[in-house]
Hints:
By secondary structure, the protein is mainly alpha-helical. It is built from six helices and no strands. The termini are far apart.
Amino acid sequence: MVLFAIVAGLMVDVPRLDILNETIRNLFYHVTSWFAMVFLFLASFIYSIKYLSIGHESDDLLAKVFVQVGMVFGVAGLVTGMLWAKFTWGAYWVPDPKLNGAAIALLAYLAYSILRNSLTDPITRAKVSSVYNIFAFVMMVIFVFILPRMTSSLHPGNGGNPAFSSYDLDNTMRIVFYPAVIGWILLGLWISEIKFRFEQYKKSHE
């Protein structure tokens, strides 16, 4: 699905819109990366709650892995978003609530990794990290999905601006976009599974 989305995203006909023009193809990469990031952060959030409830070490490890892989997709979404902003808004970064909220959310998850590395006791690290991870997810939801909708924003779907799907995501683009979302999420889960097994292997040979 990912390969299909990459190839089809470059070749499929897209609506000819003012300003956006061919850059609307970035929808297949920018938005899908964010979908994958949110899904992986949600999985990490669930496993952190599960760890605090049950206390299985594997749940904490899964929470960590999902954050790490989610960060990769988050950075990809941020970079593709900056490139898109340059073509549509004239600058790589503008003082927009959505962009600033996304940056704050990623910094919060970066702090999660720093926090984990600063704690040496495994049980303390797992408990503190799980609590912080829950806080980071809630903060991500607030800064990325709630606050931008309550303020003025250039970003589609926020600040009174229509989302792409409501005015220019035609049927041809939908054929690529929805499989791409699924493909990016499945890719994230596959990478997470590989990293989880690798982390387990390292622990068993320490």
